[in-house]
Specification:
Radius of gyration: 22 Å
Oligomer: single chain
CATH class of the largest domain: Alpha Beta
Number of helices: 6
Helix content: 10-25%
Largest sheet: 6 strands, antiparallel, barrel
Strand order of the largest sheet: 14-17-16-15-18-19
Number of strands: 19
CATH superfamily of the largest domain: HUPs
CATH architecture of the largest domain: 3-Layer(aba) Sandwich
Order of helices and strands: EHEEHEHHEEEHEHEEEEEEEEEEE
Strand content: 25-35%
Length: 360
């Protein structure tokens, strides 16, 4: 391997990104560790000891990433992107909830921050590199001269859903060293290298403690009515930001049959509940499309669709209505199609496209 080839690795202080950096170093690349500082202390979040992407525990993450780089003998740089994170992730997250939608901050963070501002800020600061790598479980495949985002060998750990906002023209300059590994192998490698992060738990929450209410101002979480699909008032909700389509727990209402959130009416500050059957949809509309294949308005194609990270892919037919908007017709009706969530379209292991669910 040409030792002059430089790879910048996005380090989070976790085991995956640490091992990714180690693998690339072992292969002979000139590796530089990069971390984005996103916590500025402006929100009242308590340190719980549980790993999260955003919160006061960030200082420990940076310290652990720094220690990894020292062990590997590689350069390490930290860039303050707290303003960008606040604008492009936190404000997006808040606005989506206030509009009655359910956002996915991880997809937005990857798209805007890790593979956007972090790379740009590093290059603006004079850090020169040929490729950018992370510890995501995914692959880049080159087919007939074109680059595609592809699933990890370890399907259970695959993270292409979270990477689906990447742009096709970025793929030729990205690396995912863990694409053929499973988690147990990664932890074994970290232990052999003497990394302190070897047994560190994965981040489970977007925000420390999982309670994102401190992000909102007091007047943004106004209580309102919980109604059925006939408009009959069944109870009170504590603020629409605490509810999502398909939710049953925490509604605080009683009924003869189980009721679930079927829709959130932000305009009237109402949460609408229905029985389980009302949650199934035969189609949906997806906007803000990001394509990895070339499609034109009027085109139709068949593929499998994932409507949230833990959703099992389902067969569907896609029709391109506008340049960045499609209609999805499911082969089998799907439960809890949720506005604001990301829909990802697959052809076997390859990602064809992604977008934001507009409505069912």
């Amino acid at each position: 391997m040409n030792k002059k080839t430089t790879v910048a690795v996005g380090l989070s202080g976790g085991v995956d990104s640490s091992v990714a950096a180690a693998i690339l170093t072992k292969k002979g690349y000139n590796v530089i560790g990069l971390t984005m500082k996103i916590w500025d202390g402006s929100y009242k979040l308590e340190e719980t000891g549980n790993d999260a992407c955003f919160g006061p525990g960030e200082a420990q993450d940076i310290e652990l990433a720094s220690e990894v780089c020292k062990k590997l003998g590689i350069e390490y740089k930290v860039f303050d992107l707290s303003k960008e994170y606040k604008q492009h992730v936190i404000e997006y997250f808040k606005d989506e909830y206030l509009q009655g939608r359910t956002p996915n901050p991880c997809v937005m963070c990857n798209h805007k921050m890790k593979f956007g501002f972090l790379i740009n800020k590093a290059k603006e600061a004079g850090v020169d590199f040929d490729y950018f790598a992370t510890g995501h479980y995914a692959k880049i495949k080159k087919i007939k001269g074109e680059f595609f985002l592809s699933k990890s060998t370890n399907i259970k750990k695959d993270q292409t859903y979270f990477l689906s906002g990447l742009e096709k023209n970025q793929l030729s300059n990205l690396m995912f060293p863990l694409g053929d590994l499973d988690k147990s192998q990664v932890r074994e490698m970290a232990a052999e290298l003497g990394f302190e992060v070897a047994e560190r738990k994965d981040s489970q929450d977007f925000i420390t403690g999982g309670d994102y209410s401190p992000l909102f101002k007091e007047n943004e979480t106004t209580p309102g009515e919980i109604v059925n699909d006939k408009g009959e008032v069944l109870g009170q909700h504590k603020g629409i930001i605490f509810y999502t389509v398909g939710q049953r727990k925490g509604l605080g209402i009683s009924a003869l049959n189980p009721l679930y959130v079927s829709r959130i009416d932000a305009k009237n500050n109402r949460v609408i509940v229905s029985d389980n059957n009302a949650l199934f949809s035969e189609n949906m509309f997806v906007k803000e499309m990001n394509y990895f294949q070339n499609y034109s308005v009027g085109d139709s194609f068949k593929c499998k669709v994932k409507i949230r990270q833990k959703h099992e892919e389902t067969p569907a037919e896609i029709k391109v209505l506008e340049k960045d908007r499609v209609e999805v017709k499911f082969e089998f009706a799907q439960r809890a199609v949720t506005p604001g969530q990301v829909a990802v379209f697959y052809d076997n292991d390859l990602v064809l496209a992604s977008g934001l669910i507009e409505k069912k």
